[in-house]
Write a structure and sequence with these properties.
By secondary structure, the protein is of the alpha+beta class. 15% of the residues lie in helices and 44% in strands. Strands 4-3-2-1-10-9-8-7-6-5 form a ten-stranded antiparallel β-sheet. The radius of gyration is 17 Å and the shape is globular.
Length: 205
């Protein structure tokens, strides 16, 4: 499996992942919800495909033929609480989203060239944590690295935070895992976390 097609079911491996409790706290997630998220099984189902974009202002990258955008639809389930749905379109445009865990947020998804890692003027070039430990196939992906952001919709939530992520694969003790590197910040604090997932099979029909 590579980032060319991430369709499948994945379960968070808590043994080798970093805690995200501080991030959830800064996002304003209630204590009892954080505790459930911190201990229960967390599953993500991803459907990776190409199709039209809902936003009429979306434009395809110059090097892309055709008129279809890359999409990853993600359903996240945590034992004991309701699931959340997040449908990402790789247009590079901000899109509003809201769910009961994080409230109103503005999300963005796009592919970025791996060469950004060596360019200090880019997000990848600035933050070493987003650069490290990726497999060769992640760095060599034809369409680039998967880069996503989620930011608080401050006028609606009265909170100010941003979570930048790079998605890909890394090897730990000889085993290849799907991984998300999270660089999270508020005006007063920065937190990083690595979320490591076990692939368990196709998304159940």
């Amino acid at each position: 499996m590579t980032t060319a097609d991430l369709s499948g079911r994945f379960v968070l491996n808590r043994t080798i992942s970093d805690s995200t409790d501080r991030i959830l706290t800064l996002q304003g997630v209630p204590w009892y919800t954080r505790k459930i998220i911190g201990y229960a099984t967390l599953t993500i189902d991803m459907t990776h495909y190409y199709g039209k974009a809902a936003d009429p202002d979306a434009k395809l990258p110059e090097d892309r033929d055709g008129d279809d955008f890359e999409h990853i639809d993600v359903t996240q389930s945590v034992s004991g609480i309701s699931s959340t749905q997040e449908n990402r379109t790789f247009s590079g445009l901000p899109r509003p989203h809201e769910d009961y865990v994080f409230g109103p947020v503005i999300g963005m998804s796009k592919r970025v060239p791996a060469s950004d890692i060596s360019d200090p003027s880019t997000v990848l070039g600035k933050y070493e944590f987003l650069q490290k430990n990726w497999t060769k196939d992640t760095l060599d992906a034809e369409k680039g690295l998967i880069y996503t952001t989620a930011s608080s919709d401050t006028p609606k939530s009265n909170k100010t935070w941003t979570a930048e992520q790079v998605w890909g694969f890394e090897e730990i003790d000889g085993v290849k895992y799907f991984s998300r590197h999270v660089h999270f910040f508020t005006p007063d604090e920065t937190v990083t976390a690595r979320m490591i997932y076990d692939y368990v099979g196709p998304v159940p029909v």
